[in-house]
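Input (structure):
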C-alpha cells in the first residue's frame, strides 16, 4: 500500500513550498502584465491597421490614377477626335474602328465593365457592340454626364451606383467620366464614360486587412457607400455601420479611433478621389493575441516549475529510479522479451537483486534457444523424411525400366540409364550437405531428365539455360528435380503433343531466380489457387494435399527454413498454356556456404 502524502516529510514540504511560490509568481506576473500587455497589443494593432489603411488608400489612388490615364488616352485618341469633330467624318467604318478600340480595352482590362462615348448631338459609341441603349435612359441628365460637362476635361469619379444605360444589364459600378474637347479650340465634343467593376477595388480592400475578423469599406463625403464587403446586406439595411460617428473622426484630431460592440473604426481620406476608407478591426483578434502572450507566460512558468521540481527530485530519485528500472525490466517477462537490467547505480542490495535477475534471464534465454534449435531440427528432419518418401517410388520405376531394357537387349541404354541413376543418387547424398553448388543441382536434374526421357521416349524435350556465372553459387539440393517431376507427371504427361521443359536461371539484385517452365496442360484458377495456398501450408498439415502439392510445399518450406521468409516459390499457370514455377534464393557464394 502506498504511503499517504503528508507535510511532515522534507520531500513533501519542498514540493509544497516551491509549488506555491512558482504558481504565485505566475499568477502575479499575469495580473500585473495584463493591462500593459493588452494595451501594448491594442496599440500595436491600431498602428498596424493605420499603416495598412494608408497603404490601401495609396493602392486605390494608384488604381484610379491608372484608370484616369486610360480614360485620357481614349479621350485624346486622334481617330476619335477626328470622328467627333465633324459629321462628315462619322462613317460606319470609322465608327467600327473606334468601337473595336474600346472593345480592346475591355478585353485587356477585366476590371472595366463598359466604355461609352456620347455627345450633345446623339453621338453614341459603346465598347459593347451588341448593347442597346434603354429608351428611357436620359443619358444627358445623368450625374456622370452633367459633372463631366461642367468640369470640362477633368476626370470625375462617381460614387457606386447601378448602371442602367444598357438594356438587360444592371451592374454595380464606379464610373470615371470626363469631357472630350477639341485639340484646336477646346470646344466640348462629347463625354467619355468608363465603368469600373468592383472586383479590383474588392481585391485591394480584402487583401489589406488586419486580423481574422477585420475588413475595410469605402464611403463618399456624404456617407454613401462606395464599396462594402457585404454590399447587398448594407443596401438592404440588414447590416448597418455607424457612419456618423466614423465621419466625426475626421473633425476630431485628438481621437484616432472609435469603438462599438468590440469593433474599432479608423478612417482616412483619399486626396485623389475624396473617398473615405474605413478600417474595422475586432477586439477578439486583439484578445487572441493577448491570450497567446498569456499562454506563453504560463508555459514559461510551467517549464520553471518542472525544472525546479526535477532538481528537488534528484535525491528521492536516487532511491526510486533503480527500483523502478528493475520493476520495468521484470515486467518484460510478461511480454516474453526477457530484458536484462545490466549496470545499475543503486545500493548493494538492489545491485545484488539485479545481478541474480540477470543470471535467471540468461538461463531462461539459453533454455529458449535450445528449445528453438530442437524445434528447427525437428522441422528439418520432417522435411528430410518427406523428401525420402519420394525417392523409393522413383527408384522402383527406374529399376523396372532398366530390367525391361535389359530384357530387350538394349545394353547401351541400360548403361546410360544406370550411369544417370548412379550420378543422381551420388549428388542426392552430397556427403550429407544440404547446400550444394548450382552446378551440381543442374547435374542432378539433368540426370533425372535423362532417365525420364529414356522412359518416355519422344514424349518431351528439355533445355537448360542458366548463366554459367551462377554455377558456383549454392542452393538447397533436390530443389529443381521435384519441380521437373511435377512438370512431367502433372503437365506434359496429360497432353497429346510433344512436351517441352525449360530450366532457366538469372540474377536479380542480391538474389538468384531459378525457373522451371513447361508447355503442359496447365491449371485453372481454382487449381492454381489451391497450389499457391498449399505452398504456405505447414508440413504437419500437408497430408491433405496431393503429391504435387506436397513436393512444391516441401521445397518452399525448406528454402524458408534455410534462407528466410523473403525467399521461396511463386507459381503462374493457365489452362493449355503450361506452368511456370520460380525459385528465389539468396546469392550465396560456395565458400560462404561451407
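Output (sequence):
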Amino acid at each position: 500500500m502506498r504511503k499517504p502524502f503528508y507535510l511532515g516529510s522534507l520531500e513533501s514540504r519542498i514540493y509544497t513550498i516551491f509549488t506555491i511560490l512558482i504558481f504565485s509568481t505566475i499568477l502575479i506576473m499575469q495580473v500585473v502584465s495584463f493591462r500593459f500587455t493588452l494595451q501594448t497589443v491594442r496599440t500595436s494593432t491600431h498602428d498596424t491597421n493605420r499603416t495598412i489603411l494608408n497603404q490601401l488608400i495609396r493602392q486605390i489612388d494608384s488604381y484610379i490614377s491608372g484608370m484616369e490615364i486610360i480614360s485620357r488616352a481614349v479621350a485624346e485618341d486622334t481617330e476619335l477626335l477626328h470622328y467627333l469633330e465633324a459629321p462628315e467624318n462619322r462613317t460606319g467604318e470609322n465608327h467600327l474602328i473606334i468601337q473595336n478600340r474600346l472593345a480592346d480595352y475591355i478585353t485587356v482590362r477585366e476590371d472595366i465593365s463598359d466604355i461609352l462615348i456620347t455627345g450633345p448631338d446623339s453621338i453614341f459609341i459603346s465598347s459593347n457592340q451588341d448593347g442597346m441603349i434603354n429608351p428611357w435612359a436620359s443619358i444627358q441628365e445623368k450625374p456622370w454626364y452633367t459633372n463631366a460637362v461642367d468640369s470640362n476635361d477633368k476626370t470625375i469619379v462617381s460614387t457606386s451606383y447601378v448602371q442602367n444605360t444598357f438594356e438587360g444589364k444592371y451592374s454595380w459600378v464606379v464610373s470615371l467620366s470626363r469631357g472630350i474637347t477639341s485639340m484646336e479650340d477646346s470646344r466640348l465634343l462629347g463625354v467619355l464614360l468608363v465603368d469600373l467593376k468592383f472586383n479590383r477595388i474588392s481585391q485591394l480592400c480584402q487583401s489589406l486587412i488586419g486580423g481574422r475578423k477585420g475588413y475595410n469599406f469605402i464611403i463618399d463625403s456624404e456617407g454613401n457607400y462606395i464599396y462594402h464587403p457585404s454590399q447587398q446586406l448594407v443596401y438592404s439595411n440588414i447590416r448597418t455601420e455607424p457612419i456618423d460617428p466614423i465621419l466625426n473622426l475626421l473633425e476630431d484630431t485628438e481621437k484616432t479611433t472609435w469603438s462599438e460592440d468590440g469593433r474599432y473604426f479608423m478612417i482616412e481620406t483619399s486626396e485623389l478621389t475624396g473617398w473615405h476608407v474605413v478600417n474595422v478591426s475586432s477586439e477578439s483578434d486583439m484578445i487572441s493575441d493577448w491570450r497567446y502572450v498569456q499562454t506563453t507566460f504560463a508555459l514559461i512558468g510551467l517549464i520553471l516549475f518542472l525544472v525546479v521540481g526535477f532538481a528537488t527530485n534528484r535525491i528521492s530519485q536516487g532511491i526510486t529510479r533503480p527500483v523502478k528500472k528493475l520493476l520495468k525490466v521484470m515486467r518484460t517477462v510478461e511480454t516474453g522479451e526477457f530484458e536484462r537490467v545490466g549496470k545499475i547505480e543503486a545500493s548493494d542490495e538492489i545491485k545484488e537483486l539485479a545481478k541474480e535477475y540477470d543470471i535467471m534471464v540468461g538461463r531462461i534465454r539459453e533454455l529458449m534457444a535450445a528449445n528453438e534449435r530442437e524445434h528447427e531440427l525437428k522441422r528439418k528432419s520432417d522435411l528430410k523424411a518427406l523428401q525420402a518418401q519420394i525417392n523409393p517410388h522413383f527408384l522402383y520405376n527406374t529399376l523396372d525400366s532398366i530390367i525391361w531394357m535389359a530384357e530387350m537387349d538394349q545394353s547401351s541404354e541400360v548403361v546410360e540409364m544406370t550411369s544417370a541413376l548412379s550420378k543422381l543418387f551420388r549428388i542426392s547424398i552430397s556427403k550429407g550437405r544440404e547446400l550444394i553448388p548450382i552446378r551440381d543441382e543442374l547435374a542432378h536434374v539433368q540426370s533425372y531428365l535423362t532417365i525420364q526421357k529414356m522412359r518416355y521416349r519422344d514424349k518431351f524435350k528439355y533445355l537448360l539455360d542458366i548463366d554459367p556465372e551462377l554455377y558456383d553459387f549454392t542452393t538447397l539440393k533436390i530443389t529443381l528435380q521435384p519441380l521437373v517431376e511435377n512438370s512431367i507427371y502433372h503437365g506434359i504427361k496429360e497432353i497429346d503433343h510433344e512436351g517441352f521443359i525449360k530450366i532457366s536461371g538469372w540474377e536479380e539484385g542480391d538474389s538468384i531466380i531459378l525457373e522451371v517452365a513447361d508447355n503442359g496442360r496447365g491449371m485453372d484458377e481454382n487449381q492454381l489457387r489451391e497450389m499457391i495456398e498449399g505452398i504456405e501450408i505447414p508440413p504437419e498439415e500437408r497430408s491433405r494435399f496431393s503429391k504435387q502439392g506436397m513436393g512444391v510445399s516441401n521445397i518452399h518450406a525448406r528454402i524458408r527454413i534455410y534462407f528466410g521468409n523473403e525467399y521461396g516459390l511463386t507459381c503462374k499457370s493457365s489452362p493449355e498454356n503450361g506452368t511456370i514455377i520460380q525459385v528465389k534464393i539468396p546469392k550465396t557464394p560456395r565458400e560462404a556456404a561451407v
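Notes: The domain at 389-593 is CATH 3.30.565.10 (Heat Shock Protein 90). The longest helix spans residues 10-75.
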